[in-house]
Specification:
Layout (H helix, E strand, L loop, with lengths): L3 E7 L3 H13 L6 E4 L7 H5 L8 E2 L7 E2 L2 H10 L2 H10 L4 E3 L4 E4 L4 H14 L3 E3 L4 E6 L5 E5 L2 E10 L14 H8 L8 E3 L3 E3 L11 E10 L2 E12 L3 E3 L1 H15 L4 E6 L6 H14 L5 H5 L5 H10 L13 H13 E3 L1 E4 L7 E3 L7 E2 L4 E2 L5 E3 L7 E2 L4 H19 L6
Parallel strand pairs: 1-2, 1-10, 2-7, 10-22
Antiparallel strand pairs: 3-6, 4-23, 5-6, 8-9, 9-10, 11-19, 12-15, 12-18, 13-14, 13-16, 14-15, 16-17, 20-21
Helix pairs in contact: 1-5, 1-12, 3-12, 8-11
């Protein structure tokens, strides 16, 4: 085993690149760092994120924006917050701009700007970055070093940072194989599920609405108990539904369905308005504008195509004058407007999921350094861990924060060196 390094970083996504940079900045100038990436291209997920623009972070990041062990998440985010991220990218030459919902994008509107800045900084710090060298195993040695076996051979490392990602978007190189490595290092891995993923609907009117976006409120019930409720924009698609509110709600539907619960997703097309309030509004309209058609009335609050489709789904002709509605029809329409059951039959799967729900439990790492509590000298970062954020730049912030802590933690670790 002739090749040696002080720190080996496995995975050159957002978390791995950040960890390599912060490790190199923290360590002595003589420290040798090798970054191994299994895919042929670096940072493939960065390049396709945010529609090719890369939503780097959010102006306001809270622990409540994440699904994970809340106290640990809070401490990790506090160590490297949004302000630190903005300053860091400014130092890398990447100016950021805010958009709706607090999302921060590069001013260039190009994800390539973000990736190039990270790769160039790693190169300037003399990190040995290698693509197409997939790591198969990390084996602890008696002298507390590690043998890292990869596609082209092996190297001995003093410390190892694992940032191999989860299972989302496997075409970018993250297929969950990193969990096999951490299991052999003594870690447990929870059940994993696709999250931030579009949902598929049974055959219905969604096909005729493809491309229409609108504000809604979604509620998910498992065995009759509400487990999630949130408002935001829904996007109708040829296969079902997508958009921010759907992506954020998807993990709750997926997990409840996977555990065998009877799951129902209800949609209010008039967020914040109760069934009773909507029914009163319909009664008043019938009295004041009796000749107004059902479709025209609904189109005051809904996109025109949605108004017509929803009326038909409720068993009402959208061209019918409102005054001619029977009381049962009026109530059926009010129910459709406030608690329409979306016939979800599944998700689009890992190929379309933006992040993984589940992973290595956070109580198995030291949140101050991201060092493994099971195998000292190993540090974990990014999507490999059991923490996933909502849409809007939160998962990238998790990558930067955990990469920061893991990189600095590994550089300061007193273990063996190459």
């Amino acid at each position: 085993m002739s090749e040696r390094c002080d720190i080996a970083i496995v995975g050159a996504g957002a978390a791995g690149l950040a960890a390599a940079i912060f490790a190199a900045e923290t360590a002595a100038a003589s420290t040798r760092l090798v970054l191994l990436e299994g895919a042929a291209r670096l940072g493939a997920k960065i390049l396709i994120s945010g529609g090719g623009r890369c939503n780097v972070t959010n102006t306001e990041v809270r622990p409540e924006d994440f699904n994970g062990a809340r106290p640990v998440v809070r401490n990790i985010l506090a160590a490297f917050d949004t302000h630190a991220t903005v300053r860091w990218f400014a130092g890398l030459g990447v100016a950021l701009k805010p958009e709706a919902g607090g999302k921060l994008f590069p001013v260039s509107d190009r994800a390539r700007t973000v990736l190039d800045a990270l790769v160039h900084r790693a190169a300037a710090l003399h990190v040995d970055v290698r693509s197409a060298q997939r790591v198969a195993d990390v084996t602890p040695q008696p002298d507390r070093s590690f043998i890292v076996r990869h596609t082209l051979g092996a190297l001995r490392a003093g410390q190892v940072i694992l940032a191999t990602g989860g299972r989302s978007l496997p075409r970018t190189g993250s297929d969950g194989s990193g969990w096999d490595i951490v299991r052999r290092l003594g870690h447990t891995v929870t059940e994993t599920y696709p999250a931030l993923v579009p949902l598929m609907l049974a055959n219905g009117f969604h096909r005729e609405l493809s491309g229409v976006s609108q504000p809604v409120e979604l509620s998910i019930f498992a065995n009759g108990k509400r487990i999630d409720q949130r408002a935001g924009n829904l996007l109708w698609t040829h296969f079902g539904i997508s958009g921010p509110v759907v992506m954020d709600a998807s993990r709750h539907w997926v997990i409840a369905h996977a555990t065998g619960a009877t799951v129902e997703m209800r949609c209010s097309f008039l967020p914040g308005r109760s069934f009773e309030a909507v029914e009163r509004h319909l009664i008043e309209t019938a009295a004041t504008r009796p000749r107004l058609s059902v479709g025209r009335l609904l189109a005051h609050d809904l996109p025109e195509r949605v108004a017509a489709a929803l009326a038909r789904a409720a068993g009402v002709d959208p061209g019918l004058p409102f005054a001619r509605l029977s009381r049962p029809q009026r109530r059926q329409l009010a129910h459709a407007l406030t608690a329409f059951v979306l016939p979800v039959v599944g998700v689009r799967g890992w190929d379309y999921a933006e992040v993984t729900a589940g992973g290595v439990p956070l109580n198995e790492i030291d949140y101050r350094t991201m060092q493994s509590r099971r195998t000292p000298g190993v540090f974990l970062a990014g999507e490999l861990l059991d923490c996933d954020g909502r849409i809007g730049g939160f998962n990238f912030q998790w990558a930067w924060a955990t990469g920061y802590l893991a990189g600095r933690g590994a550089a300061r670790h007193p273990g063996a060196t190459g």
